[in-house]
Amino acid sequence: MSVIVIQFITLDGFVTDPDGSGGTPGGGWAFRHGPEAVAGDKFRLGGTLDDGVMLMGRTTWQLFSRIWPGRDDPFARRLNAVPKLVASRTLTDTSAWANSRLIDGDLVDSVKNETRDVIITGSLSVVHALMAEDLVDEYRLLTFPTVLGTGQRLFPDHGPHTELECRSAQQIGAAVLARYRTTAR
Question: pTM above 0.85?
């Protein structure tokens, strides 16, 4: 089992509002680079979606549950079919998106007990909680040539020290997909 974090990120390390749905100043920065940079399986998840489980926080799940169920391309079919775990203290109904269920109990314990690969998209509070427990095995970062100067960072100030090994880097449209594995723990 591996925990894989996938994120759209700016050159200065911010992940805030890449699609503009949050209405933040500067929001929508990833989508300004055109669909070739954001559409489809840009994070090269492939079979991991077939055998793994997605983990999202409430905000990301609610956004995705309005977008993905109505799509029918090959990537959307995979995303709609994958089991989805939702970390939320306030959400009570996950019926809007097939194969979704709320985590029952502690987030960290749920991840530690999971036997499948766990893919986390967006959901910064979930990512930070797992980073704090040294549970993230891989980061797949789609870095856009944008400098926001403000917002929420993937790697927060005073966060845990982490050593990473770059496994690959590939240009995708205006962005670069880089895959990093955590080194010995």
Answer: yes
